Amino acid sequence: MQQILPSARTRLCVAAVLLFSLSSLTACAKKPQTAAPTAANPAKNAVATVNGAVISRDAYDFYVKSLTGGKDPSQLTPDQRNQVLDEMIGMQLMAQQAVKDNLQKDPGTAAKLDVARMHLLADAESQNFLKDKEPTEQEMQAEYAAAISKMDKVEYHARHILVAHKDLAIALIKRLKAGANFAALAKANSIDSSKTNGGDLGWFQASRMVPSFAAALRTLKKGEITPQPVHTQFGWHIIQLLDTRPVTPPPFAEVKGQVANLVLQKKLQAYVNQLKKTATIQKSL
To answer: How far is CA 278 from CA 126, 129, 201, 281, in A?
Structure first.
């Protein structure tokens, strides 16, 4: 039988299934079980019942799609469909036993269930809000123009030596001014992985670097070394600018999908911000 291997998303899906299972089980624990499901009640949509608890067709279809990257159950072989159902039955049995063991009252488990429920409902509301918010061409063009105006217009080729102590950095700068080989000093002293390349960082945009590193880099001319060590959260840097080149922005057509996603993200964030304005929020961290 062909094995259906769970993806990284499966863990979230399992949590969701367990969430719904535990929720239903907790409700069931408060009153005796009624008669077995029949075609006249909501359980008629069940793919299985486990001690009276329903595994619905919707939950089964959702779980299959989560395991297979979106496939419909009809695209699986009978053996594969049964394998998935057996997995869900196993989860339902484990969830039932968890309730019997009162694990839903465990603070860690309760917190995970709360977060899973919150995440699932928030995701559902996000999709509900965005379903009729498809970005227009005008919105995407405006977002693209704004992004291009903010992007770095220059790429830098630089190398650096990173050390833990300022005194050592100052001493190395003196040696460099006296004619020492930069790559050799980097290999011998740097604590950064770039030491194997003589400190060479390749080509990059300054915005990718931490602010103090980027600011120091922008002040250099080709071949220059920072006259003083540059401090970041990683340590003390000695930076040498090797070269620069202009950056050509990507054509709109190549990044249209990314731009559309950015527009949607901003619409969603604006919606969240509006909800915050009308909500009563108290923080107590």
So the answer is: 18, 17, 48, 9
Q: Which two tokens stand for residue 65?
A: 């799609």
Residues 6+ apart with CB under 8 A from 232: 210, 212, 213
Give the pLDDT score at 45. Answer: 87
Query: What pLDDT does 26 receive?
Result: 41
Report the distance separating Cα 20 and Cα 108, nearest Å: 17
Largest CA distance in the chain: 91
Sorted by where each starts, the structural domains of the chain and their CATH numbers stand as 10-112 (1.10.8.1040), 137-147+250-278 (no CATH), 152-246 (3.10.50.40)
pLDDT at 24: 42
Q: Tell me the CA distances in angstroms from 212 to 15, 33, 195, 230, 239, one per residue in order.
A: 42, 65, 21, 7, 11
Tokens of 55: 């595994």
Q: Find the angle CA(243)-CA(163)-CA(156) to the nearest 5 degrees.
A: 15
pLDDT at residue number 44: 65
Q: List alpha helices for the chain, DSSP H.
A: 10-29, 57-68, 78-100, 107-130, 137-150, 166-177, 182-189, 211-218, 252-278
Residue 157 has a pLDDT of: 98
Distance in angstroms between the alpha carbons of the first and the last residue of the chain: 52
Query: What span, in angstroms and rounded, lies between the C-alpha atoms of 177 and 185?
Result: 12
| Residue ranges of the chain with per-residue pLDDT less than 50 | 1-40
Indicate yes or no: pTM above 0.85.
no
| pLDDT of res. 194 | 97
Predicted confidence (pLDDT) per residue in 96-134, tens digit: 999 999 999 999 999 999 999 999 999 999 999 999 999
Which residues on neighbouring strands pair with residue 53, listed in sequence order? 50
